[in-house]
Amino acid sequence: MGIKRILLSFFLLAVSLAASAKVDYDSIVAKYHPDMTEGMIYIDKQELMLTLFSPDGKVLAEFPVACGKNIGQKQKSGDFKTPEGMFHISQIQDASQWGHDFNDGKGFIRHAYGPWFMRLYTGRHKGIGIHGTHAPESIGTRATEGCIRLRNEDLEQLHSLVKVGTTVIITPDAVR
To answer: What's the average model confidence in pLDDT over 10-17?
Structure first.
């Protein structure tokens, strides 16, 4: 019985290490061919993680995120899905006074987007961005209407490291 527990422990450790493997920069570049002039943000919807790369491919920061409540590629406004593909930051807006009614019975929430809204040019979907939150407990979950949500302190750090034009890659969900 002892050997089975030891083997099971090693197996679980191996699975855990494999699951926590860092993002493979070379694979991303080979698949997407991003413009790295301003660096790159890579958002993994499965792992609910954002990784920021410098123009030369070094990891500058990693942050947990929340993304769309529903799994899959965004099809239309209101489907609560996060779009998948390669985009770029088209605007960085002061969102410190913005609010929103999430239709959850709590009414209008002031400061719902944190200090910044990094608007993404997706070509098709309007109003998608990377922003902060009034609900830090939602980070690491599927909680948004389609945007990428970070803790406000993480957003402040990200804001200091990115510019308009930064490439943003959002990975597809594994399960459809």
So the answer is: 40
